[in-house]
Structure formats: C-alpha cells, structure tokens
C-alpha cells in the first residue's frame, strides 16, 4: 500500500527532529563531560586563583592553573584581528557587490568562498611553519609564535567569511532603493554609504559575528 503524503511529511519531520535532538544531546554530553572532568581541579585551586592567576603550568609540580593571561591574550588577538579583518572584509564585499563588473565578480566570488572553506587547522599550520619563522628572522624576535602572528592568521581566516556574507547582504539590497537615491542626486559613493550599507547592516553584522 502506498504511503500517504501526510505520512511521508510526518516521517521527514520527525527524522529531522531526531537529527536535531541527537546533535543537541551530543553537545550537551560533551559539555557535561568537560565540566565533570574539570570540577576536581577546584578541590585544590580556588575560583579566584583560577580566574585571576598569572601562570598556566598544568604539568608543573605543583601545577599552576591561572587562566587570566589566556583570557587577556584571546581578547587581544580578537581585537587585533578585527582591526584588520572587518575593514578589509567589508570593503572587499562592497567592491564585489557594487563596483566590480559581472566577470570580475564571477571570478573573485568563488575564490573568496574557497578561502572561507579552508580549515582553520591548515591556516594555523601555515602560520606556525611559514609565518612564524619569517617573522622571527625578519624582525629578529625571540619567537615568531606571538600575538602578531596569531592576529594575522585569525584575520586571514576571518576576512573571507566576513566578505562572503557581507557581499550577499549588500547584493540583496533592492535595486529600487539605489535608483531612488541616485535619482535624488546622490553620488554612487553616497548611495553606498547612506543607503546600501545601512540596509545591509544586519547581514554584515552576521558576517562579523561568524
């Protein structure tokens, strides 16, 4: 007997619901496991010492477990990479969506998306074995594995994603809005700055968050 359309729809709906639940449960179990494995640490280390300690040497005897330098370094790397990635990514997106011709956009857009698909481990490996020795030799540093290198690699990893998502958001702005702005006497750059970018701001913000 043939399966009714409603039954097929229900089966597909519950299949995707089950898939989503499996993903959520798996993530929850990972978080619980990490929490339970890390909880015994606080029998010997206080929470303030853990949060504001100045050293992280878990293999020392006795071990030191202060994550404050790790938090500060993570914030510094994020800010430094953002100073590079956000302007470069958004400006590239504006160029592709509003300035570049169809052939140029057709050639560069797939390249940007290909770069966005590069695994982060590959970019990190490149920074470690290529960029780090170059910085160490060129700038006469003690080590090339520093905040500058980490910020550059994170920016390199972020620019394609910011550019791709922002370009889609800018390209989706209705043509009528641009034509109305131009008809009122605004220049192309004024239209981009005052009409296109504000209208696409939610999509651009999504790219920045990603």
From TrEMBL:
<dbReference type="GO" id="GO:0005886">
    <property type="term" value="C:plasma membrane"/>
</dbReference>
<feature type="transmembrane region" description="Helical">
    <location>
        <begin position="65"/>
        <end position="90"/>
    </location>
</feature>
<dbReference type="GO" id="GO:0006817">
    <property type="term" value="P:phosphate ion transport"/>
</dbReference>
<feature type="transmembrane region" description="Helical">
    <location>
        <begin position="147"/>
        <end position="165"/>
    </location>
</feature>
<comment type="similarity">
    <text>Belongs to the binding-protein-dependent transport system permease family. CysTW subfamily.</text>
</comment>
<comment type="function">
    <text>Part of the binding-protein-dependent transport system for phosphate; probably responsible for the translocation of the substrate across the membrane.</text>
</comment>
<dbReference type="InterPro" id="IPR035906">
    <property type="entry name" value="MetI-like_sf"/>
</dbReference>
<dbReference type="InterPro" id="IPR051124">
    <property type="entry name" value="Phosphate_Transport_Permease"/>
</dbReference>
<feature type="domain" description="ABC transmembrane type-1">
    <location>
        <begin position="71"/>
        <end position="210"/>
    </location>
</feature>
<keyword id="KW-1133">Transmembrane helix</keyword>
<keyword id="KW-0592">Phosphate transport</keyword>
<dbReference type="Pfam" id="PF00528">
    <property type="entry name" value="BPD_transp_1"/>
</dbReference>
<keyword id="KW-0812">Transmembrane</keyword>
<keyword id="KW-1003">Cell membrane</keyword>
<feature type="transmembrane region" description="Helical">
    <location>
        <begin position="111"/>
        <end position="135"/>
    </location>
</feature>
<dbReference type="GO" id="GO:0005315">
    <property type="term" value="F:phosphate transmembrane transporter activity"/>
</dbReference>
<feature type="transmembrane region" description="Helical">
    <location>
        <begin position="12"/>
        <end position="36"/>
    </location>
</feature>
<dbReference type="InterPro" id="IPR011864">
    <property type="entry name" value="Phosphate_PstC"/>
</dbReference>
<keyword id="KW-0472">Membrane</keyword>
<protein>
    <recommendedName>
        <fullName>Phosphate transport system permease protein</fullName>
    </recommendedName>
</protein>
<keyword id="KW-0813">Transport</keyword>
<dbReference type="InterPro" id="IPR000515">
    <property type="entry name" value="MetI-like"/>
</dbReference>
């Amino acid at each position: 007997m043939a399966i009714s359309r409603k039954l097929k729809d229900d089966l597909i709906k519950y299949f995707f619901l089950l898939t989503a639940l499996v993903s959520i449960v798996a993530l929850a179990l990972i978080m619980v496991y990490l929490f339970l494995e890390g909880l015994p640490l606080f029998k010997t280390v206080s929470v303030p010492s853990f949060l504001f300690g100045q050293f992280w040497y878990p293999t020392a005897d006795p071990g030191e477990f202060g994550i404050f330098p790790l938090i500060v370094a993570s914030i510094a790397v994020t800010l430094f990479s953002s100073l590079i990635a956000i302007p470069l990514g958004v400006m590239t997106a504006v160029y592709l969506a509003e300035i570049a011709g169809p052939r140029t956009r057709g050639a560069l857009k797939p390249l940007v998306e290909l770069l966005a698909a590069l695994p982060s481990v590959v970019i990190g490996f490149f920074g470690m074995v290529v960029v780090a020795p170059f910085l160490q030799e060129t700038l006469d540093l003690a080590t090339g594995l520093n905040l500058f290198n980490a910020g550059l690699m994170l920016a390199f990893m972020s620019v394609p994603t910011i550019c791709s998502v922002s370009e889609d958001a800018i390209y989706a702005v209705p043509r009528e809005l641009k034509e109305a702005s131009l008809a009122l006497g605004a220049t192309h750059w004024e239209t981009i700055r005052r009409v296109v970018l504000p209208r696409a701001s939610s999509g651009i913000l999504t790219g920045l968050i990603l």
